[in-house]
């Protein structure tokens, strides 16, 4: 992985600013609800870094964790992004980040893995976030 992409995932201040501007989308998430983002190249070669957005004390916090493989990832949702998507998202601020993420998902630059059941995601408060990304989610219809 290039140094620029390592820096893109590790630039926690920039990610945090984008998350802070979108707190309403994450407001219903319970503490511990988490989303991981890894570079596509690390999916088959664990040992890299993972950007994690985790609900903590009423807000979403950006932090860095190690990625040791999908079976032990420890997040509820996992986004696997190609180099173009990671760099583009890092440079965005505010609401543009989620809109751009939505477009990259549609184009296939970001793959989306759901690691919890629909009921678990509903209980953890993911409905608003998933709808903001244009991902179908009918939470209350259990």
Q: Can you tell me about this structure?
A:
The protein has 142 residues and is of the alpha+beta class. It has one domain (3-132): 2-Layer Sandwich (Nonspecific Lipid-transfer Protein, Chain A), CATH 3.30.1050. Helix content is 39%, strand content 23%. The protein has 7 helices and 5 strands. The chain has helices spanning 3-10, 12-20, 23-26, 83-91, 96-107, 118-124, 127-132, and strands at 34-39, 49-56, 59-66, 77-81, 110-114. The chain has a 5-stranded mixed sheet. A hairpin with a 2-residue loop joins strand 2 and strand 3 (59-66). Helix 1 (3-10) packs across helix 4 (83-91) and helix 4 packs antiparallel against helix 5 (96-107). The longest helix has 12 residues, at 96-107. The radius of gyration is 14 Å and the shape is globular. The termini are far apart. The model has no long low-confidence stretch (mean pLDDT 85).
């Amino acid at each position: 992985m290039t140094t620029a992409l390592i820096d893109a995932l590790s630039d926690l201040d920039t990610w945090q600013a984008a998350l802070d501007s979108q707190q309403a989308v994450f407001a219903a998430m319970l503490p511990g609800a988490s989303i991981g983002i890894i570079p596509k190249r690390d999916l088959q070669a664990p040992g890299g870094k993972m950007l994690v957005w985790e609900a903590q004390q009423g807000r979403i916090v950006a932090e860095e964790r190690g990625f040791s493989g999908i079976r032990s990832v420890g997040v509820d949702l996992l986004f696997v992004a190609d180099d173009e998507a990671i760099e583009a998202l890092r440079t965005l601020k505010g609401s543009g980040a989620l809109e751009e993420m939505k477009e990259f998902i549609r184009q296939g630059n970001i793959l989306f893995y759901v690691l919890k059941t629909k009921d678990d995601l509903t209980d953890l408060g993911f409905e608003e976030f998933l709808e903001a990304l244009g991902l179908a989610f009918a939470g209350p219809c259990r």
